[in-house]
Amino acid sequence: MTITLYKSAALCLLAAGLLSACSSSSVDPDDVGTRYEGSYNIVCVSFDPGQWETEELTVTGPTGTLVATAFSDDQCTNQIFTQTITADLSYPGGTQSTELGDADFVDITFTSLVIDGVEEDLSDVPESDLMEFDILLLDGINLYFGDNTEEADGSTAENRPTTLESIPFVRQ
Questions:
Q1: Distance between CA atoms of 57 and 60, rounded to whole angstroms?
Q2: How many other C-beta atoms can be found within 10 angstroms of the C-beta atom of residue 87?
Q3: DSSP assignment, residue 146?
């Protein structure tokens, strides 16, 4: 089983799915992490043909929780499923220059996955599938994650995304 983080296409999370890093080695990672604390959402967008979704992201300290609900219609009324992903967030330091500014590095370790109220057993999932190496940038009220590509898929620190997703989460 591979975990997909819904983050503007299944961030990481999914995500697409989750969250920050130090701007430089002289900055305390905890200070950077508090910058991203809060609640964010994406309302009824289509990432895949024939499927729309809403996403709610909550960042509290070193933990991120993403609730992604998939729908079969463009009004987001006919629910297909809901998944809740919880992850530990680590701020290793470093930034990636992007079109909107310097995005912070974030390392994400998925700790739980619940689909339609049923918790999935992650004990057999390879550790590498439970990790994602991402970037994060807060521009006003808009929170952007890295845009995973074939070359920059977030599977290792060296393959961290270098550009941002086009659809941000909006701070509430």
A1: 10
A2: 32
A3: B
HEC assignment per residue over 63-91 = EEEEEEEEECCCCCCCEEEEEEEEEEEEC
Structure tokens at 41: 């959402």
144's CB contacts (< 8 A; 6+ apart) are 8, 98, 100, 103, 136, 137, 138, 164, 165, 168, 169
pLDDT, tens digit, 9 for 90 and up, residues 92-137: 999 999 999 999 999 999 999 999 999 999 999 999 999 999 999 9
**Helix and strand totals (H; E) in the chain:** 1, 12
Query: Would you say how long the chain is, in residues?
Result: 172
Residue tagged 């961030």 (tokens) = 11
**DSSP bridge pairs for 54:** 69
Q: Using alpha carbons only, give the angle 13, 16, 18 rounded to the nearest 5 degrees.
A: 35
* CA-closest candidate to residue 29, choices 20, 41, 16, 37: 20
Q: Let me know: does 133 contact 154? Beta carbons within 8 Å.
A: yes
pTM (predicted TM-score): 0.82
